[in-house]
Amino acid sequence: MSHDRTVDVLIVGAGPAGLALAARLAGAGAGHVEVLEREQDAGGVPRHCHHGGFGGPVRPWLTGPAYARRAVRAAMVAGATVRTGVSATGWAGPLTLETTSPAGLERITARAVVLATGARERPRSARLVPGSRPAGVLTTGELQQAVHLYGQDIGRRAVVVGAEPVVRHAVRTLRRAGAEVVAVVTERPRGTAVPGVPLLTATTVGELRGRGRLSGVVVRHADGRTGILACDTVVFTGDWIPDHELARRGGIAVDRGTRGPAVDASFRTSVPGVFAVGNALHGVERAATAAAEGAAAAAPVLARLAGAPWPEAGPPLVVRAPLLWVTPNRLTDLTDLTALARRPLLLRSGEPLTAPVLTAAQDGRLLWRRRFPVRTAPSRSLRLAPGWTDRVDRSGGPVVLAIG
Amino acid sequence: MTVSPAHTAPTAPTATTVTTGGALPGGEYDVTIVGAGVVGTAIARELARLPLRIALVDASDDVGDGTSKANTALLHTGFDAVPGSVESRLVREGHLLLSAYAAATGIPVEPLGALLVAWDAEQLAALPGLAEKALRNGYRSARIIPAEEVRAREPELGPGALGALDVPGESLICPWTTTLAYATQAVRAGVELHLNCRVLGVTSAEVHTVATGRGPLRTRYLVNAAGLYADEIDRLLGHADFTVTPRRGQLIVFDELARGLVRHILLPVPGALGKGVLVSPTVYGKVMLGPTAEDLDDKTDTGSTAEGLALLREKGRRILPALLEEEVTAVYAGLRAATGNDDYAIRAHPEQRYVTVGGIRSTGLSASMAIAAYVVELLADGGLPVAGARDLEPLRMPNLGEAFPRPYRDAELIARDPEYGRIVCHCERVTRGEIRDALASTVPPGSPDGLRRRTRARGGRCQGFYCGPAVRALFEEARR
């Protein structure tokens, strides 16, 4: 037997985005705001990021765990209910979630549901790295938890794979656990340099070797040379994907680029009453960015509670290669276009760009064109603050963002 | 020659025997089975009915850790076996036996049925022959269906399917639970399971003295169910009937969000260019693509390769294009024990009190119970006393199947024990209660991988990003 309950706002995921939204909503008198967290402790990924630089603006002394504790406290002080050890396992209706916890099964119905389920790094298998299946193969998330939350032994010699800033955190965590970092390997032409660690760019991991325990990784350089890096640990970093399972189970449209729920500038998904915020939308951004998205969703959620209608979807917003994704990626009503004009779009490229010219076009008509006098890496989002959205034809075809 | 058992197994063992290190117990066993895969454990279970002292030994730290753990997880009808072969008979009988056993024991089985989809004229032309072969194998439900019906039954199929052979009796099964169920029942009935116990040599006289990595073991009868190493054990006893060539099969498992894309087991039509690859749901709610078929020399090379994975993706894209858009949960490779013959190599050597169970290919899971019954017959023919058989204690295994109730959704169970409401592995929704039970079970896991095969913990899309350290901590705590 499930226990049926009703709340005003149900937020799934007590990470930076979910907690920031909960704090805003509860503080604004949104009624019963409940946050579900499947882990035993709230706070999300920052719980196991033992480095400084959290917060917005960045505070060099503020570590992930301290940031997480603040976020939890802020939500609770504002009057939100934060429940840990509660897993949302599925949907019993458009705005009703099924949950499992040691207290039993529940069906919780809300006037607004917000998915703040975060993102994870793709593991070795999803990256189709061939070879044996030994122990000692990790993601940064697993590494950080093993070292910082569980004090587990990691290994002696490690290779780190990836090019994103998270590489630095993986190296730091490995060193702290007493492992020597043999190399950082990335298939990209540029990587994240870490003092004291050889950086192998334009290099792919061709194979993992070892029975029982990892014994080495075979690397292949761009010129065809191969070599073996002897190691007992390899950490696959970055390559983030939104944890979109609950969204898809609820029939919520997922953007092809981000792999997260498609949302408009007001964080509204394709299902009326269901919002999505934070890294569930686009893979990893800084905790402060996720929290800012959560906070920004408070106004549209409050509008929904006050009876604002759910707009019909307009033309989709899509990207052309080498662009990977843009968010928001649904265009809805005119008020939403206004919201779009206020908040920046986040745009990610799969290749480094130097002073790119970005264009937005619809049905062959150029809506907007602008040069960005910057150099961007694939691990950083471009922020577009466009004033062009009023030129979008609501009944037209897809709006295409491209490098012009 | 008549043989009287040296020991009589206790009728109701108060303590079970599973050893993983140290010297082996002394004395003499009536029967020793080498190899605790699905076949060896099935034989042990069958023998456990008899008042005999039985040992089951394996080189690995777990049961089912060789070919049995990395297969296509199908319960076959035997419709495509070589008619008249031992394999044909044993798969047909085994299918019936295991279907009933699975229902009684809680081994997840999903009777989805298979479609052998023809993608070109040659494959289409092969279907009537396959239908006729099915009949000769005693399977009467196969029929050829036209392209429109294939499309209606599998809407996500890629373009170009010309027709299919419909084999409604093929099912999905959990291979891990099957092996564990056999082993558990055998051990509870008194069979002594010795792991980390590699066989190094055999000296045969009035009794066999088996030299193992953990010291000598004396046994009157010997059964060789060593899978990939069955030829090597055979040579230790002076036989050179067959050579096992490891045939590697690489497989890609897609996340459970892909499960809605496919409704049947999509088998390839065997043709001149080999058997092709299949797309099949698994009982864990995922979708499997594979296997490749590569003959190797190295019996330990269970690694995947870039070429193999590229080939699977290319073939999979044709069969079920949308599948390739989904996230990959796992990649693995298994080795099949190919012998170059078209049949099992099950040989009795009564004068040696020895039975070889070799060449058991991918159908071994389906045939396992029938193989076991056949081997016991062969042992009896060779003089093993088989009087005094008794029924085994019924067994109920923890359910790992998505099509059956799982603890995280069971309100009554959680009310009785809240640990079943504490989800540790979020992707697979494995609770702390299930992990605790597996760690304390009759045949406990020897590694985190063994724990995964008993619970699914860490077997999901994140591969440990969220739960890895928590699961490892539970495992290590139980080992202390």
Would you kindly provide a brief summary of this structure?
The complex is a heterodimer of chains A (404) and B (480). With 404 residues, chain A is of the alpha/beta class.
Explain what this protein looks like in three dimensions.
The complex is a heterodimer of chains A (404) and B (480). Chain A is of the alpha/beta class. Helix content of chain A is 20%, strand content 32%. Chain A has helices at 16-27, 64-77, 140-149, 166-176, 245-249, 287-296, 298-305, 334-342; strands at residues 3-12, 33-37, 81-84, 87-93, 96-101, 104-115, 119-121, 137-139, 157-161, 180-185, 199-200, 203-209, 216-221, 226-230, 233-236, 240-242, 274-276, 317-319, 323-327, 345-349, 353-354, 357-362, 365-371, 375-376, 382-384, 399-403. In chain A, strands 1, 2, 3, 4, 5, 6 and 17 form a 7-stranded mixed β-sheet that branches. In chain A, helix 1 (16-27) packs parallel to helix 6 (287-296). The longest helix of chain A is centred in the first third of the chain and has 14 residues, at 64-77. Chain A starts with a strand and ends with a strand. Chain B is of the alpha/beta class. Chain B is built from 12 helices and 23 strands. In chain B, the strands form 5 sheets. In chain B, strands 1, 2, 3, 10, 11, 12, 13, 20 and 21 form a 9-stranded mixed β-sheet that branches. In chain B, strands 14, 16, 17, 18 and 19 form a 5-stranded antiparallel β-sheet that branches. A 4-stranded mixed β-sheet of chain B has the order 7-8-6-15. The termini of chain B are far apart. Chain A binds chain B through residues 1-2, 38-39, 85, 87, 89, 100-105, 120-126, 128, 130-133, 135, 138-139, 141-142, 145-146, 149-150, 152, 206-209, 211, 241, 243, 245, 248, and chain B through 252, 257, 300, 302-306, 308-309, 327-332, 408-409, 411-412, 414-415, 418-419, 421-423, 426-427, 429, 448, 461-466, 468-470, 472-473, 476.
